[in-house]
Amino acid sequence: MDSLARLSRSHGQTLYDIYSLRHGKCFPRISDIVVWPVSHEDVIQIVKIVNKHNIVIIPFGGGTSVSGAVSCPKDEKRCIVSVDTSQMNRLMWLDESNLLVCFEAGVIGQDLERELHKRGYTCGHEPDSYEFSSLGGWVATRASGMKKNVYGNIEDLVIDAKMVTSRGVIEKKSMAPRMSSGPDFQQIVLGSEGTLGIITEVVLKIRPIPECRVYDSVVFPNFESGVNCMREVAKQRCQPVSIRLMDNTQFRFGEALRPVENIFGSFLESFKKSYLTFVHGFQLDSICVMTLLFEGKKSEVVSHKNRIAKIAMSFGGVTAGERNGERGYMLTFVIAYIRDLALEYRVVAESFETSVTWDKTLSLCDNVKKTVAIQCNKLNIKYYLISCRITQTYDSGCCVYFYFGFNWTGLDNPVLIYHRIETVARDTIMASGGSISHHHGVGKLRAHWYEKYTSETVLTLYNTSKKILDPKNVFANGNLISVPRSKL
Ligand SMILES: Cc1cc2nc3c(=O)[nH]c(=O)nc-3n(C[C@H](O)[C@H](O)[C@H](O)COP(=O)(O)OP(=O)(O)OC[C@H]3O[C@@H](n4cnc5c(N)ncnc54)[C@H](O)[C@@H]3O)c2cc1C
């Protein structure tokens, strides 16, 4: 079988994956065979065959995993088959009277949206990876889109998800919007990370395309006032479709990417530096920026925008216009891929995220930044960047997304060093009240914390379910359950 086909289904998008590929380093294990089922029935047959012959299967959607979830366990002696779902990408049906749609699970996010748009609808799920990630991958990892405030996270959008397990098919027999009929065992599909079965078809809620889409941005004197403003917006439950807050480092990083020499030059084309510093007394090395996206009817968007602007003003915010809002929003799409370019310049970088309650948000951000700084100093890393942004808000807390990168000139094995520092940072996150992950999932990279921070009873429940649904452990991609990092 074509080795490139096998290789490209045996990695995701972690720093380790991309660095290894760019430096011609071999992965310890790749899949032996790739198959491309074209329907739910094909998947049933595949699962039967692999059980009969004791073969391992790893579902593969868009391959955008940043948790090592699609990589092959190094010590697996059995034959490994990657099940590439890309050919299962049909729109099965669209029910306009109930605003529901059924797609095959291999459809890629932007293709799904294009099909819906043609018919006047949207599902509104837009993770930053939506140009490459698949519907099945979203469900398997419990993904979160940047417009979740209005449309919901993937778990809010899914009405039914068919999953083929070694035991049979898990599916709902009804499309009813809600049911009180015992524990909802179908929830086990969400976040299963390819360890229990293959998701083949998904029924989602849809909505008509909104009349208009408007960006906005607000500058705050410092991160704390920005966070307090976000907290107030969440308290009043008036979040627009997307609301994000970059810290000062990330703001300046974004400015540095502009094709101008002066880092403040371009932003201040539309928003004069002197206005911020002299009139408002802001310090350019502490300001932070909130980007906003509104969707809906024109009149509603205008009044919503005004309401947010009023709240922002009461926290010392100054509105900075639509253009900066749009630019900030788009930056989050491209920033991950800048990491790949940075590798050319001896810079390794990666993001890691968490969720945390409001009362612990600022201290968590602070603790993580200090931890990373201490680790860098210890290792004599002079040039590094650690920054964060708040990307999602909830009644009781938010999602914090960190970027960390450093120039590794003079150091050996930068990826290992990066992982060591990230590990200490994750320990700090956990000690500061954060979660293992808000949306990237556990995969193999965070399995160590999954076992540590999940109750014994829940671990037993998971293991028992796994034994029942997959008695021969053919879905043995090693996610959720610990694999030592050295074995990755
Ligand atoms: C640039 C970038 C930005 C990102 N932004 C976001 C974001 O905003 N929000 C977010 O939630 N995530 C984000 N991610 C992470 C990633 O895109 C998500 O985890 C996504 O849901 C993975 O989908 P995928 O189709 O690429 O899955 P894959 O990477 O192919 O697989 C991920 C896991 O799901 C399993 N899987 C895939 N398809 C199926 C299936 N049909 N049945 C059963 N299991 C399956 C795999 O076995 C694996 O365990 C980002 C990643 C990148 C690289």
From TrEMBL:
Q: Can you tell me which residues bind substrate?
A: R339
MF GO annotations: alkylglycerone-phosphate synthase activity; FAD binding
Q: Which UniProt keywords apply?
A: FAD, Flavoprotein, Lipid biosynthesis, Lipid metabolism, Peroxisome, Transferase
Q: In which pathway does it act?
A: Glycerolipid metabolism; ether lipid biosynthesis
Question: What is the protein's major site of localization?
Answer: other
Where is this chain's protein located in or outside the cell? Peroxisome
- FAD-binding PCMH-type domain location, by residue? 27-209
Q: Which reaction does it catalyse?
A: a long chain fatty alcohol + a 1-acylglycerone 3-phosphate = a 1-O-alkylglycerone 3-phosphate + a long-chain fatty acid + H(+)
Entries under InterPro entries matching the protein: Alkyl-DHAP_Synthase (IPR025650), FAD-bd_oxidored_4_C (IPR004113), FAD-bd_PCMH (IPR016166), FAD-bd_PCMH-like_sf (IPR036318), FAD-bd_PCMH_sub1 (IPR016167), FAD-bd_PCMH_sub2 (IPR016169), FAD-linked_Oxase-like_C (IPR016164), Oxid_FAD_bind_N (IPR006094)
Q: What PANTHER family does the record tag this protein with?
A: ALKYLDIHYDROXYACETONEPHOSPHATE SYNTHASE, PEROXISOMAL
- Family, similarity comment: Belongs to the FAD-binding oxidoreductase/transferase type 4 family.
Record's protein name: Alkylglycerone-phosphate synthase
**Organism the protein comes from:** Cinara cedri
